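::Amino acid chain::
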Amino acid sequence: MAEDQGAPELHPLSDAPSDLELVKSSWRKQAYVIAGGGRSFAYIDYTITGKATARSAEGTWTFSRPKGVIHRRIEVTSQDGQIRADLDLRAWKRGGTIELGGTSYDIRAKGAVSERWRCERDGQELFAVKKIHSLKKGKGVIELSALGRTDPNIALLLLLTMDANHAADSESAAAGAAAAGA
């Protein structure tokens, strides 16, 4: 993918391989792509204010958080301006249940060494995110199950997980800056 050309062509996650990678698309921008098998499946781009535009072949959403140092909620707005969800970030920090489109999903927060998050529906795994922090262009590894590829909310779930990671990084940076200033 060429640098700074915006969102790449996106393919449906139902066609994705089981092993995906989170890649920072440009060193100049806060933009990330979920890719695998030489194709791109989802894209998230942040403004300087932290607002994100998330895209996949399945849809386009805007993620925003209330102003302030600690962002505990994500408001998800669909392309047509309808509020799709108002989610608590603590589900990704400590584990918990979120609801999208009338379906409940369990988010399991794991240790930082081997796995970061696991998402399940009715006790069956949809995806697992591993190795999320890296200094290289490749930022993480995502394992997508066959059931995950068929879930109607999989693109939004993966993009929300990437956004939750971005929020956690921002919160850690703000807490570190506050501690250094004390």
